[in-house]
Design brief:
Blueprint lengths: L1 E2 L11 H9 L6 H16 L3 E6 L6 H7 L4 E8 L5 E7 L4 E8 L6 H4 L21
Parallel strand pairs: 1-5
Antiparallel strand pairs: 2-3, 3-4, 4-5
């Protein structure tokens, strides 16, 4: 897994998210991705993070990866307290896992990368009704 070396102020709520990405760095694999998704799902349930934008809901990520419907699965997660955005991407063919802190603004290419339209970024948009059904 690759983690971008950008420095952002993070709060105590999302510090575990940052640590989760960093401690998984040496083990680039889809199984590590499944472990991270499990932890992220729990953080979402506890109200620490939210799905800012993604190809599918966080809780469906393992299912989407296993089904091989998408070659690469993206999730942008946002800390609800400090609003820091994190990007998690896994390529199912190469088992390459990339996680990085984006900061407080969305990436310009985010909408082009995503095949699904899930998360708070897309809520209320007209094309949100056209989600791929995962």
């Amino acid at each position: 897994m690759t983690i971008a070396n950008k420095v952002y102020n993070i709060c105590s709520d999302c510090a575990p998210l940052s640590a989760l990405f960093e401690c998984s760095a040496p083990k680039s694999s889809v199984s590590v991705y499944f472990d991270i998704i499990r932890d992220l799902t729990e953080m979402e349930k506890r109200g620490i993070i939210e799905l800012y934008a993604g190809d599918c809901p966080i809780g469906k990520a393992a299912e989407v990866v296993e089904s091989e419907l998408l070659h690469t699965v993206y999730h942008y997660l946002r800390c609800k307290k400090c609003r820091t955005i994190y990007k998690l991407r896994v390529c199912i063919r190469s088992t390459r896992l990339v996680a990085e802190k984006i900061g407080h603004k969305k990436e310009d290419c985010m909408e082009k990368l995503l095949k699904g339209r899930y998360g708070v970024y897309f809520e209320g948009m007209k094309d949100n009704a056209e989600n791929t059904s995962f």
